[in-house]
Design goal:
alpha/beta, 37% helix, globular, two-stranded parallel ribbon, two-stranded parallel sheet
Length: 86
């Protein structure tokens, strides 16, 4: 299978670790995990900060702000870079 290359002017890749926040679906296990993640979120510092949880609404805001200031051709956003955009 031949896959064509798409040459976008800018490509933004967002890689959140744990998406926090409420959902409409009833997911009790996920809600419990979010509570635990919220409690341990603060210990993820330095290189581990990429594993910090982030609210889905904040990811959306970061995406909008990233689209407004396009500086490099390809940019990958972990927690710190997304948080810097808020």
């Amino acid at each position: 299978m031949l896959v064509g290359v798409v040459d976008f002017e800018h490509t933004h890749i967002f890689r959140p670790s744990m998406l926090m926040g409420n959902r409409k679906e009833h997911r009790p296990s996920e809600k419990a995990l979010i509570r635990v993640w919220s409690a341990i979120n603060r210990i993820f510092i330095g290189k581990l900060s990429r594993y910090r949880g982030i609210d889905g609404k904040d990811v959306a805001k970061a995406m909008i702000n990233a689209a407004k200031k396009q500086s490099v051709k390809v940019k990958i956003y972990q927690w710190k870079e997304m948080n810097d955009l808020l």
